[in-house]
Amino acid sequence: MKNRKTFAMICYFICIAACIGAGVVSFLAYRHSITYTLGFLLFVPIWIGAYWFLGFFNALAREKNGKKTRFIVKKSLTRGLSAVANILSVLLLCFWVYAYIFMVLPANKADGKAKAGAQQVVSCGVVCDNIN
Fold first, then answer.
1. In Å, how far are 20, 39, 43, 80 from 27, measured between CA atoms?
2. Nearest to 92 by CA among 32, 34, 29
3. Three state DSSP letters for the chain
4. Sign of the CA dihedral 5, 8, 10, 12?
5. Which residues are listed as membrane-spanning (predicted)?
6. Rounded distance between C-alpha atoms, residue 45 and residue 59, angstroms
């Protein structure tokens, strides 16, 4: 029983460490130390790992016998820790939705317009050369 409680807490701390790591990657992308693409590619596996370890924690923190549930880790502590990890995960996911909508998409549109403008300039130069 004590080993199960210890293992549950280890899983929780790994989950929180992964959430913090995902937060650091998100912050680095926000500060333009790394690109948003690299940041997202690093964020996703870390975030999935955090989600798995939170699931392991929740599975280890309670024990079901039929309809009765017995908590290995205190009930209020289990729910509180799960809520903190879930809120942190949702906030990180919301950051990436924000970053994609307001940072990545406008940059892609601007790149597309710049490429289209460059193609028009090149084709105008070719047409003007043919006229002369």
1. 10, 9, 11, 25
2. 29
3. CHHHHHHHHHHHHHHHHHHHHHHHHHHHHHCCCCCHHHHHHHHHHHHHHHHHHHHHHHHHHEEEECCEEEECCCHHHHHHHHHHHHHHHHHHHHHHHHHHHHHHHHHHHHHHHHHHHHHHHHHHHHHHHHHC
4. negative
5. 7-30, 36-60, 81-101
6. 21
Enter the tokens of residue 75. Answer: 């009930």
What separation in angstroms does the CA of 31 have from each of 27, 36, 40?
6, 10, 14
Rounded CA gap, 109 and 73, in Å? 51
Q: Round to whole Å and give the CA distance between 96 and 92.
A: 7
